Amino acid sequence: MLTDPIADMLTRIRNAHLALHKEVNVPSSKMKFSLATILKQEGYVEDISVNEGIITITLKYQQGKSAITGLKRISTPGRRVYVGASDIPRVQNGLGICILSTSSGVLDGMTAQAKKVGGELLCEIW
Q1: Cα angle, residue 69 at apex, residues 54 and 4 outer, rounded to 5°
Q2: What is the average pLDDT value for the chain, to the nearest integer?
Q3: Where are the domains of the chain?
Q4: In principle, which of 4, 35, 90, 107 could form an S-S bond with 112, CB 3.0–4.6 Å?
Q5: Where are the alpha helices (DSSP H) in the chain?
Q6: What is the distance of C-alpha 29 from the center of its chain?
Q7: Which CATH class is domain 5-66?
Q8: How far apart are CA 60 and CA 44, in angstroms?
Q9: pLDDT of 1 above 70
Q10: What is the pTM for the complete model shown?
Q11: Largest CA distance in the chain
Q12: What are the distances in angstroms from CA 84 to CA 7, 50, 93?
């Protein structure tokens, strides 16, 4: 039984990058699709597509190196982490992004600060 599907998604992406795979398949959900969409908007992945309950994420490489250096799950099912709009952290001194689940949907940290909404801090990506 899988207890943390977001951590599973991040681990699949991390392992695929380390193995230099071109794409990775993740079971589909609205939350995972929102996370993948943010990764595409921020330029960490090339493309995403959904087929028959599977999200296919095409990974991005620059000169043989992964566009994603690190992924870290912050809020877990056993320890939820919530932040206010003024407490949203800067990741790697502004070189990375954090992703939040807010009342306005799943947003990256900069968008959440601009909309002045806080929420559950899901993960950090750099």
Answers
A1: 45
A2: 95
A3: 5-66, 71-125
A4: 107
A5: 5-18, 30-41, 109-115
A6: 13
A7: alpha beta
A8: 6
A9: no
A10: 0.91
A11: 40
A12: 23, 32, 19
